[in-house]
Amino acid sequence: MGSGPEVTGDAAASSCAIEERQIGDISVVSVTGTVDMLTAPQLQEAISAAGQRPPKAVVVDLKAVEFLASAGMGVLMSAHDELTPSVRFAVVADGPVTSRPLKVVGLADVIDLYPTLDEALAALTN
Length: 126
Known about the structure:
It is a single chain. By secondary structure, this protein is α/β, with parallel strands linked by helices. The chain has one domain (17-125): Transcription Regulator spoIIAA (2-Layer Sandwich). The protein is 32% helix and 30% strand. It has helices at 40-50, 70-83, 99-104, 117-125; strands spanning 16-23, 26-35, 57-68, 88-92, 112-114. Strands 1-2-3-4-5 form a five-stranded mixed beta sheet, with helices on both faces. Helix 3 (99-104) links the parallel strand 4 and strand 5. It is globular, with a radius of gyration of 15 Å. Mean pLDDT is 88; it is low at 1-12. It comes from Mycobacterium noviomagense. Belongs to the anti-sigma-factor antagonist family.
């Protein structure tokens, strides 16, 4: 019996890559892989860093996410609450893995949701 929490399962199953870049005065945080309770803190940190500049808007691009858990959705809601109204916040999500859960839990009613990064950027630059 160990003294710390036991971790089971494949560690590679809970991995994500996060890339942050500037497109004009908009910060884009692109996420690949799994967003769950193990990787959600990385996403929170990246979004917080993106909002520090301060940009006109922060876009979280989830188009390459393979699994979006409730922990990830909680990070998105927290980021929305922390950034707005001074910084606009949007999410790129399309399909059953990302946009469907966001719609089912009602986050799409609160957070601006776009099917592509181009559509998000066009909406946020106007």
